[in-house]
Design brief:
heterodimer, A: 335 residues, mainly alpha, ABC transporter involved in vitamin B12 uptake, BtuC, two-stranded antiparallel sheet, 13 helices, B: 508 residues, alpha/beta, Rossmann fold, 2 domains, six-stranded mixed sheet, 22 strands, globular
């Protein structure tokens, strides 16, 4: 029997060996990485000024909010759920930020409140989904309409942000040679790092994976399923709130119609990043790669010049199909 | 047995559990001592699972006391029970395949470092636990990449992390092969010698005799008695379990002895060179009226695949079939039904019963399908038919309106049988009709098969249990590696003879 077979890897390992071995678990992420590399190479050979620090820096600056959304979405999708509200919650957060600043509230109060708005909505989702057994799709769909409606209630028109300290925070830039990093990119990278640490080095994170692998099993293993599931939606809601803040910094305004269908971009990024929609498999770093792939498609189409920007959607659609088919093949081979 | 005198670690007295109106357990006493393997025996529905669930807090007893280590307790659930040293490993492995082996063992009691998980320590500790189980696998590999047997052992590993005084193993061997079972038993003995009390539930009598020290027998929710395994002969145990002697079994044997085929008869179904690529190699088979043909072979030898070709469940790509001398093609189960061929699948849950329908609806399903939806069966006729089969096959509960999912495995099987008998088939193909059902129901089904054959029906009988095949078959077709390798006379065949054929003439 298998037990007496020689162990598969008797080599001595040192320190952290999570990503050092090539496991099939990393194959989808690796696939995303290859696609990203190919796009960079193709772009670099086709257009001058493509592979420049300015373009790459802009890729991060333009997509910082989406990276944060994708990190939160990864938590939820890993548990086998979905969060359709993040686009609306992002808009709500921008509107809350702009409206409160307009009313003269101090930045130090406005920022936590904007993020907290997302947290509260996330908590409501979690409670509905776990304790009232509502389908995640339906619960977060309700949250999506609710948050969008709330935006219009607060401010139907776009509100420009001219608060001096907020603007200075938003325009903070660190320059390394030709590379630029804004405050929103820094925040997004910190969120990615935190997401990675939480998922891989806390019991909460491992329970997120366990729930995706089998909720019943996780329950019988004595893991805190209820708390973890609710918390996953809290994480996603908080990320959406923070994403809204970043978007407000990026656009210097709050508008109730921002981020329409942005939840679908986030989901697409997570899936292209190799996370299975059924839950249990995937990585936060994959989702970041997914966002970069989406952003790069946009960049390439801009560089192409003659193409309509709707080509972005077509390419994303085709890529999604390919990735989902690849994942299907991988999971089929495993069983 | 060295701990014979030690005070019991679990002592349950006068336990009753009710699911009104049913009394699932009625005043049962049960005690478990440290350092023993204690088998809990009984037919399906005797109350074994209920007793375990009462102990681990899934069911709340309506009467009685539970003492663990001398302290009276009512656990609130498996997690609470585990915290007090009572761990359960279920028949289906309840772990997460997407996590690593180390996580599956350690999560919940994982070593920490600066408030986070300490992966290195976690792997190291998991490796120690694995070593104790005699498992040499990489703790960093994902659980899903290992066989079911290894996963089962990992589940036991998890159960024994921390302070484990009582280990409950509910049917741990049902999906393991012989070597794997032997390995499991070694592990169980080692744990026993460490002073762990093991409660073992299994349908396999020989395994129970091999590994257990004592046993408690339940019947119909009541305690029959507690016995020392070595002092209780198997025949006696079976009597205790089913509450009647073995004469039913013997009756079946007698019926099988009779039945002579008239010389020169036309076979009811004759297949020549029937086969399907990737499924079964071409084979010939003649099936006569009044005859039981047994199919013997290991799991995966092509038994089921052969049956599926005979009954149109799979389409053959080569070969011919003749029904009563007339060439035909058995392309779909419906076509086969038209020729009076009925098939009960080995997958009772997935391809047999419709568990959300009632006994009545399940029984008339095939007959109604044959008539078509335009001509519904008159209700009176349905009621008569259903009453007849409930009576004839002894289906319990004898309530036509009971939902199938509330019946035990044996009774579900009887309902499936009744469904096909209602269509008055000429040929009945039974794939593992006795799997996973208790001894009593098994004997009843065997007896029924013999009677049906005596009444002129042709039966193909598939079972993993050779003994059973030998007992009731007139002829035995032996399968190996997806080929029919031999056909022998059932009357004179011995177990050794068939085993040799299955193993490849002793060459394997």
């Amino acid at each position: 029997m298998t037990t007496s077979a020689p162990a598969s890897a008797p080599r001595k390992r040192r320190a952290l060996q999570i990503p050092t071995r090539l496991d099939r678990r990393y194959l989808p992420v690796l696939g995303t990485f290859v696609v990203l590399a190919l796009m960079l190479i193709v772009g670099g050979t086709r257009y001058e000024n493509f592979l420049t620090p300015a373009v790459i820096s802009n890729l991060f600056i333009n997509n910082a909010h989406l990276i944060v959304l994708a990190v939160g979405m990864t938590f939820v999708i890993l548990t086998g759920g979905i969060d359709l509200s993040v686009g609306s919650v992002l808009a709500l957060s921008t509107v809350v930020t702009a409206a409160l600043l307009q009313a003269g509230w101090p930045v130090a109060v406005v920022i936590p409140l904007a993020v907290l708005a997302g947290t509260v909505i996330g908590l409501a989702h979690g409670v509905m989904i776990h304790y009232f057994q509502v389908q995640p799709f339906v619960a977060t769909l309700a949250g999506m309409f609710f948050a969008r409606g709330l935006c219009f209630l607060i401010a139907p028109e776009s509100i420009a942000i001219d608060n001096a300290s907020f603007v200075s925070l938003a325009s903070w830039v660190q320059i390394f040679g030709e590379w630029r990093m804004t405050s929103s990119v820094l925040i997004a990278l910190i969120v990615v790092g935190l997401g990675f640490l939480v998922l891989h080095f806390t019991r909460f994170g491992r329970t997120v994976y366990a729930i995706g692998g089998g909720e019943q099993s996780a329950l019988l293993m004595g893991l805190p399923v209820a708390r973890t599931k609710v918390l996953a939606y809290v994480v996603s809601g908080t990320c959406a709130g923070l994403g809204g803040l970043l978007f407000a910094m990026f656009s210097r305004s709050g508008y109730s119609l921002t981020g329409v269908a942005m939840e679908l971009d986030a989901i697409a990024a997570v899936v292209i990043g190799g996370t299975l929609l059924t839950g249990g498999t995937g990585f936060v770093l994959g989702s970041v790669l997914g966002v970069l792939v989406l952003g790069l498609i946009q960049t390439i189409i801009t560089f192409e010049g003659t193409l309509s920007s709707w080509w972005t959607k077509i390419v994303i659609g085709v890529l999604l199909l390919i990735f989902v088919a690849l994942q299907r093949i991988l999971t089929l081979r495993r069983t | 047995m060295t701990h014979q005198t030690a005070p019991p670690v679990v002592e349950m007295t006068g336990i009753s559990v009710e699911f009104p109106p049913v009394k699932a357990l009625d005043g049962v006493d049960f005690s478990l001592r440290p350092g023993e393997i204690h088998a809990l025996m009984g037919e399906n529905g005797a109350g074994k699972s209920t007793l375990i669930k009462a102990l681990t807090g899934i069911h709340t007893p309506t009467a009685g006391t539970i003492r663990v280590d001398g302290v009276e307790r009512r656990f609130t659930g498996p997690a609470d029970a585990r915290a007090h040293g009572v761990s359960t490993v279920y028949q289906e492995v309840n772990l997460c395949e997407n996590l690593t082996v180390a996580e599956n063992i350690m999560l919940g009691a994982e070593p920490r470092l600066l408030g986070g998980l300490n992966w290195r320590a976690m792997r190291r500790q998991a490796a120690v636990h694995l070593e104790r189980m005699g498992l040499r696998i990489d703790p960093g590999s994902s659980l899903g990449s290992h066989s079911l047997a290894v996963q089962q052992l990992v589940a036991i590993c998890r159960a024994t992390v921390g302070d484990c005084k009582v280990l409950i193993l509910d049917e741990p061997t049902s999906s393991l092969d012989t070597d794997e079972v032997a390995h499991l038993f070694t592990v169980m003995r080692a744990l026993r010698d460490d002073g762990v009390a093991i409660l073992f539930v299994s349908h396999f009598l020989d395994q129970v005799y091999e590994v257990s020290d004592r046993m408690t027998v339940l019947r119909n929710g009541a305690l029959v008695g507690e016995f020392v395994t070595a002092d209780l002969p198997a025949a006696k145990l079976v009597q205790h379990m089913i509450g009647r002697s073995m004469e039913v079994l013997e009756a079946a044997e007698e019926v099988a002895e009779q039945a002579e085929r008239p010389a020169g008869a036309t076979p009811l179904l004759q297949v020549v060179g029937l086969g399907r690529k990737g499924s079964v190699q071409p084979f010939d088979l003649d099936l006569y009226e009044g005859e039981v043909v047994g199919l013997a072979g290991l799991l995966g030898s092509g038994r089921t695949e052969l049956a599926r070709l005979l009954t149109g469940a799979d389409r053959a790509d080569v070969g011919q079939a003749r029904v009563a001398g007339k060439a035909t093609r058995l392309r779909t189960p419906r076509a086969a039904m038209g020729h009076g061929i009925a098939y009960t699948s080995e997958d009772r849950k997935g391809e047999g019963v419709v568990d959300g329908l009632t006994v009545r609806e399940n029984i008339v399903l095939a007959l109604q399908a044959e008539r078509g939806w335009m001509r519904p069966l008159p209700r009176k006729q349905v009621d008569e038919l259903v009453a007849k089969y409930i009576e004839q096959l002894g289906i319990r509960p004898a309530n036509p309106e009971a939902l199938l999912r509330n019946l035990s495995g044996g009774n579900q099987q009887k309902v499936v049988l009744a469904r096909w008998l209602a269509t008055a088939p000429k040929l009945l193909v039974l794939d593992e009709p006795t799997r996973g059902i208790d001894v009593g129901a098994k004997a009843e089904i065997q007896k029924l098969v013999a009677e049906l054959a005596a009444d002129g029906m042709s039966v193909v009988f598939i079972s993993a249990e050779l003994e059973e095949v030998l007992r009731i078959s007139h002829r035995i077709a032996v399968m190996r590696d997806r080929r029919k390798v031999a056909e022998i006379d059932g009357g004179g065949a011995t177990m050794d003879q068939v085993v040799d054929l299955i193993a490849g003439g002793g060459a394997a």
